[in-house]
Specification:
single chain; mainly alpha; three-stranded antiparallel beta sheet; two-stranded antiparallel sheet; 50% helix; globular; binds carboxymethyl coenzyme *A
Length: 430
């Protein structure tokens, strides 16, 4: 029960009336403010919070993030430990079910996901219909929606077994789609997944297999890719996850909800930042001096991409782990020549008042692009990699949302600032 001290007393100075609003989990319910009004006809007080700067849209048990202290945990487990000891598919199952699986459960899950990797022939044709220079994220967005058209049973949200199948299907197929989009852009034939191989190994093989079938990915690269996918797997209520939850709250099928997440991730302020970082580094490498670039950033002409975060006001813990993964990858591929430039930009930024005062630190995207590039991927594919990694997080959050009795269709309020009622003006009188 809420004690007297677990409440907020609000006095409406318009009327002198005081209201007591319960505080629970350091939060007040926005709807508790509706009782505050000056007359019965009024709607009642609302909160105005563009971009949800201070509004919790759900109660979630999936991911904990403490941005001030640089802490990230999936289901209670620190990201550092998961990146060190776990695999991407184990983390996916952890996010979905809440517990680390037994050996047998993990093996069964890995088998199910890999078995779900092949995509239907008509989806291959669908991808082939795109121009070769179409952006892979635009193709991925369309391909996931197209996949949903193949699963009319997915609309039945009450059947847990059906929904589990869709979840496995999406995690399995999104990697195959990612590899196919790359091959399509390059004009190469698709390489089908091999159910005897693991997830990340399959992905690299589908990307780079040659016509003699002689490509075998280096185990260090397979491991580094797995770590990158783990780091991207969830990040609580970020822009794309909120999009998945918001669209999913209409009780649409999960493929459509995930397509909404992909659309949100595509933007340069979200998942598209890793691609933007590489383009920025290339521009500086190509002639613009780093000093001139940084001055432009501080004058507000542009942003240092891969820096800053809505929640992290400290070093993003994922950025630290990625720096370590860089070493593992570069030991195999040779050092990405842009690493030096990125490191110098980071040092300059972290010593500069502009960045210090605003608490702007490198985020996950500052270094991830360097690794993806070393793995042989073009910049346009980087956000696709993010989407493959983020799929389990979207699905875990979506699943939590559809089972949350407190959730309803997402529908924010507005403060109307438009014109008052006025009469239609005939064309010849305008
Ligand atoms: N470079 C230069 N200045 C920046 C940057 C940046 N990267 N990020 C924020 N600022 C400044 C901003 O101009 C503002 O300054 P002032 O107070 O003088 O107006 C202040 O810092 C606060 O910025 P904000 O835009 O109010 O912060 P936000 O929480 O709305 O934005 C962000 C967060 C991630 C969109 C932003 O930091 C940004 O645009 N970063 C670059 C893009 C990027 O790397 N995105 C990837 C995010 S991590 C992966 C993911 O989860 O998607």
């Amino acid at each position: 029960m809420t004690s007297k001290s677990d409440s907020l007393t609000i006095t409406d100075n318009r009327t002198g009336t005081s209201y007591e609003v319960p505080i629970s989990e350091e939060t007040i319910r926005a709807t508790d403010l509706r009782q505050i009004k000056t007359s019965d006809e009024e709607f009642g007080l609302m909160t105005y919070d563009p971009a949800y700067m201070n509004t919790a849209s759900c109660r979630s048990a999936v991911t904990y993030l403490d941005g001030d202290n640089g802490v990230l945990r999936y289901r209670g487990y620190p990201i550092e430990q998961l990146a060190d000891k776990s695999s991407f598919l184990e983390v996916a199952l952890l996010l979905l079910d809440g517990e680390l699986p037994s050996k047998a459960a993990l093996e069964a899950w890995e088998k199910d996901v890999v078995a779900a990797m092949p995509v239907p022939d008509h989806i291959e044709k669908f991808i082939e219909a795109f121009p070769r220079d179409a952006h892979p994220m635009a193709m991925l967005l369309a391909a996931i929606a197209a996949l949903g058209a193949n699963h009319p049973e997915a609309v039945d949200l009450t059947d847990d077994a059906v929904q589990r199948t869709q979840i496995i299907n999406i995690i399995g197929k999104i990697a195959t789609l990612g590899a196919y989009l790359y091959r399509h852009s390059k004009g190469l034939p698709f390489v089908k997944p091999d159910t005897s191989k693991g997830y990340s190994e399959n992905f690299l093989t589908m990307l780079y297999q040659d016509d003699k079938g002689s490509y075998t990915p280096d185990p260090h690269l397979v491991h580094a890719l797995d770590v990158l996918l783990i780091l991207h797997a969830d990040h609580e209520q970020n822009c794309s996850t909120s999009a998945v939850r918001s669209v999913g709250s209409s009780q649409v099928d999960v493929y459509s909800a995930v397509a909404a997440g992909i659309a949100a991730l595509y933007g340069p302020l979200h998942g598209g930042a890793n691609e933007a970082v590489l383009k920025m580094l290339r521009r500086i490498e190509g002639g613009q001096s780093a000093e001139e670039f940084m001055n432009g950033v501080k004058e507000g002409k542009e942003r240092l991409m891969g820096f800053g975060h809505r929640v992290y006001k400290n070093y993003d813990p994922r950025a630290r782990i990625i720096k370590k993964a860089c070493d593992e990858v570069f030991a195999v591929t040779g050092v990405n020549p842009l690493l030096d430039l990125a490191t110098k930009l980071e040092e300059t930024a972290l010593a500069d008042d502009y960045f210090v005062q605003r608490k702007l630190y490198p985020n996950v995207d500052f270094y991830s692009g360097l690794i993806y590039e070393a793995l042989g991927l073009p910049a346009e594919m980087f956000t696709v990699m993010f989407a493959i990694g983020r799929a389990p997080g979207w699905l875990a959050q979506w699943y939590e949302m559809i089972h949350d009795k407190e959730q309803k269709i997402s529908r924010p309020r507005q403060i109307f600032i438009g014109s008052d009622e006025r009469d239609y003006v005939e064309m010849d009188a305008r």
